[in-house]
Specification:
Layout: H1 3-20, H2 31-59, H3 72-86, E1 88-89, E2 95-96, H4 98-109, H5 114-124, H6 129-135, H7 140-155, H8 158-167, H9 175-187, H10 189-222, H11 226-254, E3 260-262, E4 265-266
Antiparallel strand pairs: 1-2, 3-4
Helix pairs in contact: 1-11, 2-3, 2-4, 2-7, 2-8, 2-11, 3-10, 4-10, 6-7, 7-11, 8-10, 8-11, 9-10
């Protein structure tokens, strides 16, 4: 293995371990708690799509006249990832993005998707992401998480974006989580079949094949430049820390007798 990759993975290991063993996963043993979880997690699913598209814009040619951009290997890697994220298939074989599939899962289980849908309306009407988050009075953990992503998109070099995408977002769902959801889905198939399918698909595509492609992409972009690898490492650590705070907040919301997490709105 590349020595730079080994050092990066060693630096990330304690943060990843904290996420994978987070007590939040042990609380996902009932429908109300899963609804709370999706209310937080959906924002990470959405801004992840924006991170993917930003990488495609930076690493491939998306305008005319077409010109070759960068390495053909890197172009292939990001285009394949975009194909899967933006136009995968649902359980019936219909084309759908992972974000739209997640929204369907929320709607099926009765989770409130009003906040994320309103965010999209604000952004489509020209409001900046940061202002839209603020206007919606979303929890600070969500605002900071999404703002970190868009700060990376708008201001960070491409190898940093690729590192946040690869090491800060992928392959963080433990087997325990999927096992709990599968058990609940057997009891409540009419509520959780889409969410279970989303998780299985996420692990199969994003956690396996895509994570390997993405790691290759980071290695190509950083090359043998120690400074780039250090920047990539620090950004990936920051992304994991923001995810830990997001999970902490969702976990705390699950402990409340009445789940209130957005705009004073109870579940």
């Amino acid at each position: 293995m590349n020595a730079f990759v080994e050092r990066l993975q060693a630096a990330l290991a304690p943060h990843r371990a904290q996420l994978v063993s987070h007590p939040l996963y042990g609380q996902l043993h009932n429908i109300p708690n899963i609804r709370v979880f999706t209310g937080y997690h959906v924002f990470a699913v959405w801004d992840f799509m924006s991170l993917v598209k930003s990488l495609q814009q930076r690493l491939t040619c998306v305008h005319t006249p077409w010109m070759p951009v960068g390495s053909a290997n890197t172009r292939y890697l990001i285009n394949e990832i975009v194909l899967g994220e933006e136009s995968d298939v649902d359980a019936a074989g219909n084309r759908i993005s992972h974000f739209e599939l997640y929204l369907q899962a929320m709607q099926q289980m009765g989770a409130d998707s009003t906040a994320i849908e309103q965010l999209l309306v604000y952004v489509q009407n020209g409001t900046t992401v940061a202002n839209a988050l603020q206007q919606l009075q979303l929890p600070q953990s969500i605002q900071r998480f999404v703002n970190f992503t868009f700060d990376t998109i708008n201001n960070a070099p491409v190898w940093v974006q690729a590192a946040v995408f690869t090491y800060g977002r992928e392959d963080l769902i433990p087997d325990m989580f999927l096992s709990l959801v599968k058990q609940l889905s057997q009891q409540h198939p009419a509520l959780l079949s889409i969410f279970t399918y989303y998780l299985e698909r996420h692990i199969e595509v994003d956690g396996g094949h895509h994570s390997q492609l993405a790691a290759q992409m980071v290695a190509e972009l950083c090359g043998q430049d120690a400074h780039k690898w250090e920047e990539a490492t620090q950004a990936a650590i920051a992304a994991l820390e923001h995810r830990i705070v997001l999970w902490n907040d969702a976990y705390a919301a699950m402990q409340q007798p009445v789940h209130i997490w957005w705009n004073g709105k109870p579940w």
